[in-house]
Amino acid sequence: MAITAAGEAFTDGDSGARSAQPRQFIVTVYGLYARADGGWLSVASLIALLADLDIDEPAVRSSISRLKRRGILVAERRGGAAGYALSDEGLAVLREGDERIFRRDRSTLAEGWLLAVFSVPESERNKRHVLRSQLTRLGFGTAAPGVWIAPAHLHEATAAMLRQQDLDGYADLFRADHLAFGDVAGKMRRWWDLDELERQYAAFLDEHEPVWQRWKRKRSGEGREAFVDYVRVLTAWRRLPYLDPGLPVELLPSDWVGTRAADLFFALRERLAEGARDYVS
User: Fold this and answer.
1) Per-residue confidence band for 221, with pLDDT thresholds at 50, 70 and 90
2) 64, 41 in Cβ contact below 8 A?
3) What does R_g of the chain's alpha carbons equal in angstroms?
4) Nearest to residue 248, comparing CAs of 152, 174, 176, 180?
5) Mean pLDDT of the chain
6) For residue range 81-130, what is the model confidence (pLDDT) as tens digits?
7) What SS3 class is residue 211?
8) Which residues are within 8 A (CB) of 107 and not within 5 positions of it... i.e. 6 or more apart?
């Protein structure tokens, strides 16, 4: 399904910019700079921008072909120039990503939880796999077999996904509170892999804290430098909010590394976004 492929393309791979694939940078560039022009970029512009990120033309063209095959980009000529536009599915995933990636607020216990309970016949096990993959992509944890849990604010995105995937007939969504028995903070480490999440947040800090320190010392900076650093930091960041769906702050350690990582990302965004956009324009 196209939307599944799009979701994977927007969030796959390791979170570090150093290990990012060319297609991940292309998705970032489209998300930041193409939508103001109807989701379209010329091939020549894309090759020039990716060259600033040390990605050569053959790698750009190969990655564009893969994104086209996965239904994310569509070939389109404008004014005699060859280029690619985001598909409707790609635009939809970007809109969902905006809400997740640039969300600063964490959930609170008072907001409650979203439970997704599903049952899929054995004869349709492929739909069971799609359902599990999509819930994982949205950031759900597994509370019990067939019972998935996430912060309540994900209810609209989850309902939309179930409808888009024609899976709404196999699942029920409930808003819930934890009323009794057991330590919820301890259970969260079973529902989500917090150790791995901490590792990825720490890696993000290790990679991008020096970038922030460099920009703090600058009175001004070249637009190209702002563009390169901003695309790299956003490409590294955008998978993390899917792994951590805004888990309630009351249940996290007081020195939760994700808070420092978010502070760093948004500080770099504020410092770099305008200069990067001016350079691309």
Assistant:
1) low
2) no
3) 20
4) 152
5) 88
6) 999 999 998 998 898 889 889 998 889 999 999 999 988 888 888 888 99
7) helix
8) 151, 152, 153, 245, 246, 247, 248, 249
Distance, CA of 242 to chain centre: 6
| pLDDT greater than 50 at residue 7 | no
Tell me the two tokens of residue 3. 């939307």
Domains of the chain: 2-97 (1.10.10.10), 113-176 (3.30.70), 193-280 (no CATH)
pLDDT digits (tens, 9 = 90+) for 61-75: 999 999 999 999 999
pTM: 0.86
Backbone phi, psi, residue 34, to 5°: -95, -30
Chain-centroid distance of CA 77 in Å reads: 29
C-alpha to C-alpha distance for 162 and 46, rounded to whole angstroms: 34
Distance of alpha carbon 41 from alpha carbon 183, whole angstroms: 51
Specify the residue for token string 């404008």: 78
| 248 token code pair | 């309630």
Q: What's the full length of the chain, in residues?
A: 281
Q: Angle, nearest 10°, between helix axes 257-280 and 223-237?
A: 140
Tell me how far apart the alpha carbons of residues 237 and 241 are, in angstroms, rounded to a whole number.
8
For residue 204, which amino acid is it? F
